[in-house]
Amino acid sequence: MVLTVGGVTPHTPQTLADIVTETPAAARVLDGFGLDYCCRGDRTLDAACTEAGIATEVVEGKLADLEPGVDIGWTTLTPPALADHIVETHHRYLHEELPLLDALAAKVLAAHGERHPELDRVRRLVAALRADLEPHLLKEERVLFPTIHALAGGRTEFPFGSVANPIRMMMLEHDQAGELLADLRVSTGGYTVPADGCTSYRSLYDRLAALEEDTHVHIHKENHVLFPDALALAEAGE
């Protein structure tokens, strides 16, 4: 299959991760079809669509209609600069948003839980996501990302051995966060607000959908761009 995305036709089949790296707007299209391009971004579009039971041609049509990518500056950053970009863009957002979402989920459960018992699971999943992501962010900020800066500066030895070790752990934790986000999508019916949902109810679901989208892009940048580049830095220094 030769896929055209945003008016660009590559010479070889692309993985989902390749598609989003070259055309960041494709992330929203793939999210809309429930195609995981971050934790499972190594699949081709054909393989992912077949697994999901979606006609590949339908997704191709949506991707072909995209405007050529404009938000691709981060793809040209050096590993240290990309790590800083991720902290300033995605980590800052999560540090601010997760506590607010946790409180909002509790508020909506208290107001609507009797009529919508699924909100109890939503509340527990939001709390679990916060408990999963907050220490994860700190490990990246205090251990992995400073290591990437040190690698770029020529350092080759670290107390934990190869940089591949913390990267492996971060990728496992990305998988856990991805599973929690997938559970949230199912538990909320795709973030569908019921007819009797109040403004707070709608705000919760809208913000959870936005958090899912941002975190998918965040994980993609790390799994498919930053981490491979950091491993290449380490290999070059050995």
Quick gist of this model?
This protein has 238 residues and is an all-alpha fold. It has helices at 16-22, 26-32, 45-52, 56-64, 79-112, 118-152, 164-187, 199-237.
Characterization of this structure:
Helix content is 68%, strand content 0%. It is globular, with a radius of gyration of 19 Å. It has two domains: 1-71, SP0561-like; 74-237, no CATH class. It is mainly α and 238 residues long.
Write a concise keyword list for the protein shown above.
single chain, 238 residues, mainly alpha, SP0561-like, 2 domains, 0% strand, globular
- Major β-sheet, in short? none
Instruction: Note the total helix count.
Output: 8
Helix and strand string, N-terminal first?
A: HHHHHHHH
Number of domains: 2
User: How many individual β-strands?
Assistant: 0
The proportion of strand residues reads under 5%
- Overall shape: globular
Measured between the Cα atoms of the first and last residue, the distance is 38 Å
Radius of gyration from the CA trace?
19 Å
Q: Which blocks of ≥5 consecutive residues have pLDDT under 50?
A: 4-11
Please bin the fraction of helical residues.
55-70%
Mean pLDDT: 90
Which structural category fits the helices and strands? mainly alpha
